[in-house]
Design goal:
Its main location: membrane. This protein is mainly α. The chain is 69% helix and 0% strand. It contains 14 helices and no strands. The longest helix is centred in the C-terminal third of the chain and has 40 residues, at 318-357.
Length: 393
């Protein structure tokens, strides 16, 4: 009986998770289709019949209906109750590990992160996309919850939830790390040839410029250089090319020459990644706004402005870049490092398996980022302590 007061918040969190899991299914279905998550009310995707409250009870409605629609008897995917159960379990585990009495709104923030990760993973598996409504909004939520975290006192502050400064650093490093892998990897895939289809006014060219400028002048000067290049493109109404031989080549050479010029490679790398992350998020927000404006202008205008089918090869999806930013915003840079290490290791193993089986070549990296984030959230402390001990730090 003494443990009952501790279990009640966990049980309440589990019930909340079941309800939010039902909403998560709405996100998974509607966001990739560009539909409103509020209107129309819940309906069967097969017959469009509105669903009554008795049809929407998490898990139990699916079980009582035998996994079929009450009105047209079409099968309902088992994923619906699975998502609800996973959300209930995830929320309960978060409430147990991060009690609301100690972490306050920070606990709710971690639950929001869980929903972003679960919905994003399911959508990525289905469509190879990660909607901006999850990734960019998730990044903003992570930064917002960091202000609530600022008042939390912890006896082990390294393992507490991030402060606003730590959340911003985590978001920029998350985006910067993956977008750097993308631009450098894509350059290698193109055999060091220039991009044929650069974005106007802001895109990968500006991110590469931010890498170089950030390495020497710091993150905010790097972001400034990227935005200045984008502004020049906008004024000229055409792409004013910034050669990657200069930006990416210069960045890689800079890391090698920095020590001989009295610069720390670690500081240069950090400045470059922060600048690239800031430029990547600026580009992501710009193109998200453009997409929303095109939708308001109507399908004809959106089709006329659509990107061409031709594109440069990419080493990493840009949705993954923005999801890493959201993870960094919620967890901070140290847990982010664990999340990225786990995700890359898991993705590499699957890539080897896919190559051996000669199966699908494209890797859906979102679920691995989600896995890495959950491992980092729950077990980053012992993992980092083990690494420091093994490295003699």
């Amino acid at each position: 009986m003494a443990d009952l007061p501790l279990l009640i918040p966990v049980l309440v969190a589990a019930l909340l998770g079941l309800l939010v899991g039902s909403f998560t299914n709405v996100l998974i279905w509607r966001l990739p289709r560009g539909e409103s998550i509020a209107f129309p009310p819940s309906h069967c995707p097969h017959c469009d019949h509105p669903l009554a409250p008795k049809d929407l009870v998490p898990v139990f409605s699916w079980l009582l209906l035998g996994g079929k629609c009450r009105y047209c008897r079409a099968p309902i995917k088992v994923r619906y109750p699975v998502v609800e159960l996973l959300t209930g379990l995830g929320y309960a585990l978060i409430a147990w590990q991060f009690p609301f009495a100690e972490y306050g709104a920070g606990t709710l923030g971690l639950m929001a992160l869980f929903t972003v990760l679960l919905a994003g993973s399911a959508i990525d598996i289905d469509t190879y996309t990660l909607p901006d409504e999850l990734t960019l909004v998730g990044t903003a939520l992570g930064l917002g919850f960091a202000f609530a975290n600022a008042g939390i006192q912890s006896t082990a502050p390294v393992w507490g939830l991030p402060s606003p400064e730590q959340a911003l650093t985590g978001a920029l490093l998350g985006a910067g790390s993956l977008v750097t892998l993308d631009v450098v990897g894509s350059w290698i895939l193109r055999r060091f040839r220039e991009r044929q289809y650069p974005d106007l006014p802001i895109g990968y060219q500006q991110i590469s410029l931010a890498l170089l400028a950030g390495a020497w002048a710091g993150p905010w000067w790097g972001l400034g250089a990227a935005l200045l290049s984008a502004a020049a493109n906008a004024v000229a109404r055409r792409v004013l090319r910034v050669p990657e031989l200069l930006t990416l080549g210069g960045f890689l050479v800079s890391l090698g020459l920095g020590p001989s010029l009295g610069r720390s490679p670690l500081e240069m790398g950090q400045g470059a990644l922060l600048a690239a992350g800031a430029a990547a998020l600026a580009a992501g927000v710009y193109w998200w706004v453009q997409t929303l404006l095109e939708k308001r202008r109507g399908p004809a205008a959106a089709e006329a402005d659509a990107a061409p089918d031709a594109y440069d090869p990419s080493a990493m999806g840009f949705g993954d870049v923005k999801l890493a930013a959201a993870i960094g915003a919620f967890l901070g840079w140290e847990r982010l490092a664990v999340a990225l290490a786990v995700a890359i290791a898991a993705g590499a193993v699957l890539g080897i398996v896919q190559a051996a089986l000669k199966s699908e070549r494209r890797l859906k990296f979102g679920p691995y980022l989600a896995l890495g984030a959950l491992v980092a959230l729950l077990w980053s402390e012992p993992l980092i302590r083990w690494y420091r001990s093994a490295a003699g730090l």
